[in-house]
């Protein structure tokens, strides 16, 4: 069943260290009879691997390796809370080595640099690995809608780093405004613009507003007045949260406006230059903060693969979630163009879809190994939550809609329950509920390294690497 490895490199000193401390040494992948490579440890990849481990009981000669450039699984639905001091970032970013410790799954922390579908290999900076089954779940990237060249210094909210950077930046803008006497410059520091009226934009605008007008204002109130702070949400279409029923969309809009957020509907962004948000029609908003939350596109590595794809680069899969062009290449999550047989539309790129696809994908890989029937993926959206600032969330499920404090409690309970590591579930529960009575964090964590005199080449290289 196995193919030989193209090339392997390993750090001999590292291997010796592992033996010394009694940690099980990684077996040589070349001798494994069946190798499953899972690319990405997000919602699609992590859950596929975990289900594979569960379904493969009794089949010992199968090796599962999950490759991710980060050593953690990121729980994105709570990222906006980490960006606004409401949650410690590590509570929502869980080490995959820890999650996989008691399983047969190997974590390979490295960047996928290339995928060779003919040779059936995947390369990272560490090594090239052969596979028998490949699961692609590398997620999506921000889609700037061809405005890249006109957006200077814009923030996004996709990663843990983004959340930390936004949090620091907002605090820094308050620090700058504190000492600034020119009213126009102060205004620009204290105006926060979010683009995109989908769940990410709405949730972030809500949290940012609470953070700025309550938490930070307490710290900076000696020289900054609440009336100086502005949070603006810009949406190109005529409504926010288009996936919700119209009455809930409207309720969300009213909630945003009632807490003091300016929502500009049917307003398109033309650019962001010289710290001015430029709107189509000529209006400009001076602001030192623009967060782009207006869409996603497929990971470029995936978009470049020679497979059947849709207009935005997602890989077309059949009902079993296998590529329509290449057997043994499975795709889950944001990378999959998977048709909903009921609506005739592709499933939306959500965590909910990714987790459900993961289960079916794992089942089908194992079913094929065991020569048993495979399943077709079909899933009915069970509804979802959108939180808007402190103590308020909207829940839209099949028969049920809930808003306000009750929705917010449920939002917390449901999402926290989905965090993989129990310790962080408890810590998050405490943090989020304590937030009702106590303050959020307003500590700036400077991520830029201090300058070093005559840095060594190794140090310079380390500085340039993503953390
Ligand atoms: C701020 C935010 C809030 C969201 N809120 C919700 C919500 O409330 N409900 C909901 O259903 N969905 C939500 N989503 C969408 C949801 O996060 C995605 O649909 C889901 O994560 C898709 O899962 P995935 O496995 O396809 O990709 P991801 O979860 O993004 O995982 C992709 C993984 O691939 C890794 N990776 C990428 N490129 C490489 C490479 N070259 N080499 C190695 N590793 C790589 C990444 O590090 C990542 O771990 C939200 C998204 C964001 C950004």
Automatic annotation (TrEMBL):
Pfam families attached to this UniProt entry: Pyr_redox_2
Domain FAD/NAD(P)-binding: from-to ranges: 35-358
Highest taxon, organism lineage: Bacteria
Family note: Belongs to the NADH dehydrogenase family.
Keywords of the record: FAD, Flavoprotein, NAD, Oxidoreductase
UniProt EC number: 1.6.5.9
GO molecular function, one term: NADH dehydrogenase (quinone) (non-electrogenic) activity
Reaction(s) the record says it catalyses: a quinone + NADH + H(+) = a quinol + NAD(+)
UniProt-recorded name of the protein: NADH:ubiquinone reductase (non-electrogenic)
């Amino acid at each position: 069943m196995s193919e030989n490895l193209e090339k392997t490199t390993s750090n001999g000193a590292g291997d010796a260290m592992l033996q010394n401390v009694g940690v099980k040494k990684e077996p040589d992948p070349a001798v494994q009879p069946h190798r499953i490579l899972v690319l990405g440890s997000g919602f699609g990849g992590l859950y596929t691997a975990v289900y594979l481990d569960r379904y493969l009981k009794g089949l010992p000669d199968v090796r599962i390796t999950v490759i991710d450039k980060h050593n953690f699984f990121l729980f994105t639905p709570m990222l906006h809370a980490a960006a606004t001091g409401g949650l410690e970032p590590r509570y929502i970013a869980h080490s995959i080595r820890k999650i996989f410790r008691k399983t047969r799954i190997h974590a390979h922390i490295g960047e996928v640099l290339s995928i060779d579908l003919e040779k059936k290999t995947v390369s990272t900076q560490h090594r090239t690995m052969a596979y028998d089954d490949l699961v692609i779940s590398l997620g999506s990237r921000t889609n700037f809608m061809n405005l890249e060249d006109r957006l200077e210094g814009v923030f996004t909210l996709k990663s843990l780093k983004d959340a930390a950077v936004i949090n620091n930046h907002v605090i820094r803008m308050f620090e700058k405004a504190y000492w600034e006497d020119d009213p126009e410059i102060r205004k620009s520091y204290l105006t926060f613009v979010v683009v995109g009226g989908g769940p990410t934009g709405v949730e972030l605008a809500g949290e940012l507003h609470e953070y700025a007008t309550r938490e930070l204002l307490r710290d900076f109130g000696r020289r900054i007045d609440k009336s100086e702070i502005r949070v603006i949400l810009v949406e190109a279409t005529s409504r926010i949260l288009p996936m919700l029923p119209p009455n809930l969309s409207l309720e969300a809009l009213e909630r945003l406006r009632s807490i003091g957020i300016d929502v500009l509907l049917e307003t398109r962004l033309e650019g962001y230059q010289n710290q001015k948000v430029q709107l189509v029609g000529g209006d400009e908003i001076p602001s030192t903060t623009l967060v782009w939350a207006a869409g996603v596109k497929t990971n470029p590595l995936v978009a470049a693969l020679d497979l059947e794809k849709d207009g935005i680069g997602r890989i077309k899969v059949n009902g079993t979630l296998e590529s329509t062009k290449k057997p043994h290449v499975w795709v889950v999550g944001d990378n999959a163009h998977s048709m909903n047989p009921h609506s005739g539309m592709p499933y939306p790129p959500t965590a909910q879809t990714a987790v459900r696809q993961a289960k079916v994908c794992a089942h089908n890989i194992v079913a094929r190994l065991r020569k048993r029937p495979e399943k077709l993926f079909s899933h009915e959206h069970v509804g979802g939550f959108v939180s808007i600032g402190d103590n308020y969330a909207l829940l839209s499920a099949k028969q049920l809609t809930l808003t306000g404090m009750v929705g917010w409690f449920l939002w917390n309970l449901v999402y926290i329950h989905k965090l993989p590591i129990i310790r962080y579930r408890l810590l998050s529960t405490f943090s989020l509920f304590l937030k009702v009575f106590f303050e959020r964090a307003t500590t700036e964590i400077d991520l830029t390294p201090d300058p070093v005199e005559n840095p060594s080449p190794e140090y310079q290289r380390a500085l340039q690497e993503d953390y």
